[in-house]
Amino acid sequence: MRFRLTIMSLALGVLLLAACGSASSTSISKSDESSTTESSTTTTLATTTSSTTTTTAKLPLTGKVVAIDAGHNGGNAAHSADINQLVDAGNGVTKACDTSGTASNDGYPEYEFTLSVAKDLQALLQAQGATVVMVRTDSAGWGPCITQRAKIGNDAHADIAISIHGDSNDAAGTRGFHVLVPQTTNVNAAVAPASNRFGTLLRDSFLTTGMPVSNYLGTNGIMPRGDLGGLNLSTVPKVFIECGNMRNATDASMMRSDAFQQSAAEAIDTAVVQFLS
Ligand SMILES: [Zn+2]
Predict the structure, then answer these.
(1) What is the whole-number distance in angstroms between the Cα of residue 70 and the centre of ligand 1?
(2) What distance in Å separates the CA atoms of residue 24 and residue 177, rounded to the nearest whole number?
(3) Is residue 58 a contact partner of residue 52, using CB atoms and an 8 Å limit?
């Protein structure tokens, strides 16, 4: 009898063990639920983070300062004595305060083109949260001198500065855009590498405008310069862009159009966002 009871006890023990196993399974199942809850919480957090990121992405240039230098001015030609005054352009170069700029063969002036692109660019940058400093906002006056154009970006502690131009070359078949990047001078040494990095980004993005790279200046659309006061004297990263050859009928026709001007502004904006991201 005692032996039988022992057998029964063993049998009960096995049953209890089986029951514990079952309970254990239930416990794992609960643990899975718990994981699901955690996963759900994580998903919620991820969604929140994603939402925050999306908000930031809408304003990628918040807190950034961009200086836009629209080349030349409408009154320069009528103030030749003023714009011909010699200034120290840095890097041992002395040159005129500014020039009147060029124009297309059918009379569209460079200073109008540069201001139009500058304003389109200003709107794009501001919409993305940037603080924009404009060297000029109309074409009524003369100057400022190239020294002042650099100083405006410097004083604003701009994160990037861009000088917008149209080139002038009368040789047949010469067309396309090129980016002028600084040679290193005593003044710009700290920012010349960043300027060159931005210049490459700008060259790449500007191809989207449909304007080809220059077939007469620079290498693959990039040309280092050591004689430009706007670059030599800049203590913030800065490049110039010659958006096309205004003396070439094909380039000039593009540069007159609102569509190209907007496209040029968008290309510059893209490079700015890439550079400052
Ligand atoms: Zn120019």
Answers:
(1) 9
(2) 73
(3) no
| Amino acid in position 231 | L
Q: Which residues contact 80 (CB under 8 A, 6 or more apart)?
A: 100
What is the spatial distance between Cα 38 and Cα 260, in angstroms, rounded to a whole number? 52
In the residue annotation, 242 being an active-site residue is answered as yes
Q: Which residues contact 263 (CB under 8 A, 6 or more apart)?
A: 208, 209, 210
How far does residue 54's CA lie from ligand 1's centre (Å)? 39
Kindly report which listed range (56-70, 92-106, 142-156, 242-256) carries the lowest average pLDDT score. 56-70
pLDDT recorded at residue 57: 56
pLDDT surpassing 60 at residue 112: yes
Q: Which of 33, 38, 110, 242 is catalytic?
A: 242
CA distance 42 to 101: 59
CA of 4 to the centre of ligand 1 (A): 109
pTM confidence score: 0.80
Q: How far apart, in whole angstroms, are the C-alpha atoms of residue 151 and residue 173?
A: 37
Is the distance from CB of 73 to CB of 115 less than 8 angstroms? no
| Other CB atoms within 10 Å distance of the CB of residue 32 | 11
Q: What's the gap in Å between 6 CA and the centre of ligand 1?
A: 106
Does residue 255 contact residue 113 with C-beta atoms inside 8 Å?
Answer: yes
Distance (Å) from CA 71 to ligand 1 centroid: 5
> Considering only CA atoms, which of 178, 177, 185 is closest in space to residue 231?
185
Calpha distance 252→265 (Å, rounded):
16
